[in-house]
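Risk register update: the risk that structure generation would not scale has been downgraded. Supporting records follow, first protein first.
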Amino acid sequence: MSVVENLKVVIETINSVKRESVTLIAVTKNHGVEVMREAIDAGVENIGENRIQEATEKFAVLDRRVTKHLIGHLQTNKVKPAVKNFDLIHSVDSIHLAESLNKAAKSVEKIQDILIQVNLAKESSKSGVYEENLPELVAAVDEMKNLRLRGLMIIAPNFPDVEDCRPLFRQAKKFFDIMKKNRKNFDFLSMGMTHDYKIAVEEGSNMVRVGTAIFGERNYNA
């Protein structure tokens, strides 16, 4: 199917199970600018990228208005272009990274919206702060005047049976709801990708990051 047809299927799937408004981020890593334009022209309002250099090169010629999300791991030596190019950074996972982002945002007089990435499954192969270290990171971010904490980002393990993601997503939603009660602008639970976004939405995600289901398999030689 085409990008437009795939996009329609994803949106219909989200709408069939959603409990509230869900933001769809079309993940364009390893997909070219023409495909990005096609998706935006079909109604996509949010684009997700994983790598700073690739994203910067594509954004320079995209010539479309779209909200830009950094969803990949961010190294501290890339914070300046991240702040320059992205509206929402999903992958803040340490005080050190947050401090670097705050400094970069201050230098350009920007309030940078961020999410904290939480590694609930404690997978060594994934980034993210562990549950027990989350309060310390949140408290530190709250003191940084050029960062605005907008929510949490979760990546579930790639279980053979996707249903095994459900308890983790449910746990993440509980954390999110508890934190949201006492916080302003704490709006986004970024949770769910191509293989598990339907379950994530069923369990309360209001922001999903979908690439393959919209654009097909990635071209890693691009």
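Supporting record for the second protein:
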Amino acid sequence: MSATSIEWTDETWNPVTGCSKQSEGCAHCYAEAMSHRLKLMGIPKYTNGFSITLHPNTLSEPLSWKKPRNIFVCSMSDLFHEKVPFEFIDRVLDSIRKTPQHRYQLLTKRPERMVEYFSTRLVPDNVWVGTTVESNLYKFRIDILKSIRAKVHFLSCEPLLGPLDELDLSGIEWVIVGGESGPNARKMLSKWVKSIKEQTSKFNVPFFFKQWGTWGPDGIRRSKKKNGKLFEGAVVQEMPKIMSK
């Protein structure tokens, strides 16, 4: 477990590290850059850099965490990557089932494999399933995700690289939006964010605006800290309503 600056979660847990590019949102992957940096620093967990690596020694970590929290699983990987065996995912889910006080956020760019996995297994009540939808090209992932029987389905529209038109958000419990950061960051336009926010309001879905990233709402390049996280003058960081149940 490690503390995180990711605002929509409390902690991260990485029983798998490493990944490979799946779609255009992966082009400037923060996890890839960080993995190579940690390897150069001599951090043992990242000896293999960004190659898929299983860490069975981390599977028992959540069992010692007593305080309830939101936990982003595999922030440095994709748990449903083709090179992660279902048998290992079983072991990850076993730890999740043993710690019902926590809420585990499983985010993937491979919802087809997530569906395959859960086609023969139940989703624990404390698991939220999510997929990345960075532009209209990947809206197909939404219907795939919704086919999974889970209490919370969420979308991560980060980095948002284009408009998301005519979204069917029925069966979606949460939408996260954020712009890209880094030296090669691509712009996110205000009208794209506004459109998504309006659509979440139509479906009564909580909307979480994470950040502008490297490009501000005025189209000027700055540090992501300076651009901040205000949308139309306010911080809008709503969480799934199931949190209050």
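The longest strand covers residues 103-108. On this basis the risk owner (M.S.) recommends closing the item.
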